[in-house]
# Entry
Amino acid sequence: MAFGWIDEQAEARRRAGLLRTLRPRPADSPLLDLASNDYLGLARHPEVVEGAAAAARTWGGGATGSRLVTGTTELHARLETELAEFCGFEAALVLSSGYAANLAAVTALGPHGSLIVSDAGNHASLIDGCRLARGTTQVVGHADPEATAKALATHQGEAIAVSDTVFSVDGDAAPLCSLAEACREHGAGLVVDDAHGLGVLGEGGRGAAHAAGLAGAADVVVTATLSKSLGSQGGVVLGPARVIGHLVNTARTFIFDTGLAPAAAGAALAALRLLRREPERPARVRAVAAELHARLTAEGLAAVRPDAAVVSVRAPSPDAAVRWAADCRTEGLSVGCFRPPSVPDGVSRLRLTARADLSEADIERAVRVITAVRPC
# Structure
């Protein structure tokens, strides 16, 4: 029977406690949200919502074509200009998602004959970019600049190192300065995904590369998503103008994809402008994350110290993690649940995301629920 193997795999996932299901949420969910990536609490901010609505009224529901045909509007151009200026780069290119941005950057900058050195803890989108690139990929230990340098030393020719700036599973930060030093020693470029750093780290939320003093460097390219701190949807690649021009001409996820919907571009632009006016929001996110970590560890839970907005709490097993998250939901708290194969180390976790708009009462309630229903 066609696709018969699918049933076998589904049953194997069910037995292993790894079956995933969709849970549509209502617009007025009563749950306290510590599962989304709305770090700055802007997804429902009136200015951001109006930015989306105004763009849709002006430009319509869709971009109408690929960016190189009809899908580039004046709104897209303004968003790219302001993103580049805010983050400290010469140019920017907006794509339909952060995933598409990572595929674009890695495949376009990892041509045949090149070496791509990839951190073992990288996000799936970077991993897939490495798989699709025509260069040779070498995976090195997590957050290990020395291993990166050794890998680069084995290759003569074009090379890049690829890393998250803040890793999505445990929320730990990459040693960007040391990675950049290793790359420069061997004439390689550095490509980093700042999905969890933009809006959270750096001066006023300008990102991890800006905080490390790497923004605007000729050998550094940054990708990011517009769907986390900016509360919208889409992705962006930031870097030297010649690199962005190269992506416009070679990146398949840019050339052959419909442009980002105007509503998403309008929402992201409104969120970016709001962040400029309220630069205290990133510090509040980090403070909430630190407080969650402190309170959870004080209760005896194994929580990883956060470098940005993600707080990871380890669970004894995949089944226990699923039950823990479900019990939290029953008690009115929404938390993330990460299990294999989503986690590279095979350790199941609850994944909590701090938000700038969480109150002290929200934090206290979240810790109380997580502690009360923890697995025995």
